[in-house]
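User: I'm preparing a small set of examples for a lab meeting where we compare how different chains pack in three dimensions. I only have the primary sequence for this one, and I'd like the structure in token form so I can line it up with the others. Please keep the answer compact; I'll paste it straight into my notes.
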Amino acid sequence: MAVTAEQVSSLRKRTGVGLMAVKSALEEAAGDEEKAIEILRKRGIAQAVKKSDRDQKEGSIFIEAAQGKAGIVHLSCETDFVARGDDFQNAGKELAKLAFTKGADAAQSHAESIIPALVNTLGENVSLTDIRVIEGSTMGTYVHSNNKIGVIITLQGGDEIKARDVAMHAAAMAPAVVHPEEVSAESVEKEKEIWREQLKKEGKPEAMHDKIMMGKEKKFREESALVKQPFAKDQSMNVETYLGGAKILTYVRLSVA
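Assistant: Understood. Below is the structure token output for the 257-residue chain.
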């Protein structure tokens, strides 16, 4: 029986098992997910399956970077104790290095091969949450001291010092987008619903609502945008001013929970 991509994705989320192993088990089970789990258990990856329904709210971010290229990995687990352990840290560093040297697909494939054994060793669920490879002539990277936040910035113009400073700023301030116009209409509309209720409670005249809302939207967009935020190292200027004529080409920020 042919299985769908949705079935494969569902079982992978539940088990943390590799793509081909999941697909094979589903085919043998004629698409029955519970039977496929039994098959995977019989094939020696029971520990990964048994632990798969537990939340993975901890983990670490890893970056390997040099000469205008970087691999960034978010590896998840259940507890901070495991996230700080050598086995987990070494696995994350290995995956980031592999992403950097051979690409995201190679790192993804390797993760699928090592995670079941890592689950057995550590006694809790582990998964590769995100992996990306970034390239740029002027690049700055930053991983926070607790390994919970990692940022990559690439610039057109500027230098690596400015790129790293902006990466550190983004780690602290968590901008959602680079430019105000990139804030989604959906996000703005959600805020508008809140603002409408606030204006009603404040008793503001309805004729003033539109003008007030325009100001609130402008502020919301700028607070969400990296280039318009007050620069963390010098609040007298925003990030855009600090960069001078340099432009942000790439902004990647991964965080644990």
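A couple of notes for your slides: The chain has a mean pLDDT of 91. The chain is about 50% helix and 20% strand.

User: Perfect, thanks.
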